[in-house]
Recover the amino acids of this structure.
């Protein structure tokens, strides 16, 4: 099973000290989880404010009990920061292996969808991927495109193309519309419909 964990009050952690505060709460979170998880379970920090946990031999049916222990370990006592104590809670998204993920990327995308759904439901809870309403599931393609868009913005690979919007009968130009274009390689673009 893969768990993705994120603090429900990430903005409070950021206000308390930015990256240093996130580092401090993540170190304390992993210390708390070491008392709950087994030696064969693996923790990783794939993002600034998220933790991934690979839990061996844990079907979704057993995940609820483990998640309850993790939720309690986080919310039962405040986290210690240089600026003072901070009471936090987390949301957990989970996806079973191999039943629901065909690749590592797909598995993490599904765990992230479950995590976001848990946060939408108010946080401080577990959401299993199988419980996420179909319209709320983020596809791997969408996640990869979102990552590509972020990188393209940072690299200046987005451009605007303008075209007139014309009345078919009178041939009068109503306005010019701007269309975002994402470079897909030399002389190629991703269609706007693929990312709008």
């Amino acid at each position: 099973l893969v768990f993705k964990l994120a603090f429900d009050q990430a903005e409070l952690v950021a206000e308390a000290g930015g990256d240093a505060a996130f580092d401090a709460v993540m170190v304390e979170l992993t210390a708390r989880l070491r008392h709950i998880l087994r030696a064969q379970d693996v923790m990783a920090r794939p993002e600034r404010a998220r933790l991934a946990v690979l839990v061996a031999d844990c079907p979704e049916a057993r995940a609820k009990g483990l998640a309850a222990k993790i939720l309690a370990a986080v919310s039962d006592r405040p986290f210690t920061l240089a600026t003072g104590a901070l009471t936090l809670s987390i949301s957990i998204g989970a996806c079973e292996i191999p039943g629901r993920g065909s690749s590592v990327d797909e598995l993490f995308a599904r765990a992230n969808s479950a995590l976001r759904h848990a946060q939408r439901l108010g946080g401080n809870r577990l959401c299993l991927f199988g419980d996420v309403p179909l319209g709320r599931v983020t596809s791997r393609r969408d996640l990869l495109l979102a990552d590509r868009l972020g990188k393209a913005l940072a690299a200046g690979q987005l451009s605007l193309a303008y075209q007139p919007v014309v009345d078919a009968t009178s041939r009068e130009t109503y306005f010019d519309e701007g269309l975002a274009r994402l470079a897909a390689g030399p002389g190629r673009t991703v269609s706007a419909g693929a990312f709008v």
